[in-house]
Design goal:
single chain; 108 residues; mainly alpha; 61% helix; 0% strand; flat
Length: 108
């Protein structure tokens, strides 16, 4: 009965996790009956983690502006390359040609 073995495994894992959770609550200063301030130490939204003043909409707007600026710059560079106003000069042609050669095959 593999299904019962799986169910027993899952139930055991849940029991262990619940036990660890209760142990953490009981051993934490203030415990279950402690003050709200004592229990806030477990809260992940404390100032160490939270970033006040962060507006997702503003961040997205800035990202969109930056992407539009990059797109405009790429379009300008492409236009310079099309018209010939910008030229690409390769100084190490021999090195590049040497890298393009296929590896020599061993002779049989």
């Amino acid at each position: 009965m593999p299904s019962l073995r799986y169910l027993n495994t899952i139930l055991t894992i849940l029991a262990v996790l619940l036990t660890i959770n209760l142990w953490t609550l009981w051993t934490h200063p203030g415990g279950l009956s402690g003050s709200l301030e004592a229990n806030r130490a477990l809260d992940l939204a404390t100032p160490a983690y939270a970033q006040p003043g962060v507006q997702p909409a503003e961040q997205r707007a800035k990202q969109i502006q930056i992407m539009e600026k990059i797109s405009t710059q790429i379009e300008q560079q492409n236009e310079l390359l099309r018209t010939g106003a910008a030229r690409i000069r390769i100084e190490n042609v021999e090195e590049i040609r040497g890298q393009d050669k296929p590896a020599e095959q061993p002779r049989r």
